[in-house]
Give the backbone structure.
Amino acid sequence: MDNLAIADYPGQLDELVARVQSYNPQADVALIRRAYDYSARMHAEQKRMSGEPYVIHPLNVALIIAQLHLDLPSIVTGLLHDVIEDTGASLDEVKGLFGEEVARLVDGMTKVSKNQPFPAARRSRLKNFRKMIIAMAHDIRVVLIKLAENRLPQ
């Protein structure tokens, strides 16, 4: 599956790597590719409403994060941000494969995403705003990744 996943979208993955390397020439390209492969494998059975493979969504989130020139853990988190919430992946597995920092960011994304999209009721919006503030207090990158995700069409 790994080679198939990369073969399906070589241009976008290569574009992500090029964007990251443009501002971080020493970036661990193997880590980016490994995160993409893992995301593609975990989301293999999922499709977008358009019929495209789901992995296009996290790849596009990572591309936006790279446009913001965020660090490598943020890029990797963009690729992995839905694996715990939408697949059989566990936080411990993500931690073991990608490290404590990425696991913490993915966990933060999962917590912030639980009530998305924001419901219309005022009380619910305030609760979501509170979660966003708490996430910012722990690591502002969670909020930046969430904002990158929200720029994409659902």
Summary: DSSP finds ten helices and no strands in the chain. Confidence is low (pLDDT under 50) at residues 1-8. The radius of gyration is 15 Å. Residues 46 and 54 are 5 Å apart (CA to CA).
